[in-house]
Amino acid sequence: xxxxxxxxxxxxxxxxxxxxxxxxxxxxxxxxxxxxxxxxxxxxxxxxxxxxxxxxxxxxxxxxxxxxxxxxxxxxxxxxxxxxxxxxxxxxxxxxxxxxxxxxxxxxxxxxxxxxxxxxxxxxxxxxxxxxxxxxxxxxxx
Length: 142
Prior knowledge:
The protein is α/β, with parallel strands linked by helices. The protein has five helices and six strands; from the N terminus they run ααβαβαββαββ. Strand 2, helix 4 and strand 3 form a beta-alpha-beta unit.
């Protein structure tokens, strides 16, 4: 993890906002589209059990090489069809991955293994926001 604090790109820029939104008491987290695992390792600092998934085998290999004992469980596979453990995740994070899949399918899939799915309103809307950027996404609507 040495040197990761010095890295910057448009995706890494949003990590502090994502991490600040992690609910207190979260025990299990998932990073969707983890790439080389930078966000997953940062998440592991505040959430005891973190899994990270990416479709690209090379990225998962790089993530494992850079893990340096962080204890993240890296999964090479398709998030939309992966079979996750029976215990749900308390938090699911993702930066710059949703646009690589069907957005509605991705959001619905994020809802399934998440213990905190009650954050979805009764209308089926997920409130997505990063500080001043806030919008609603409604699964099932184009």
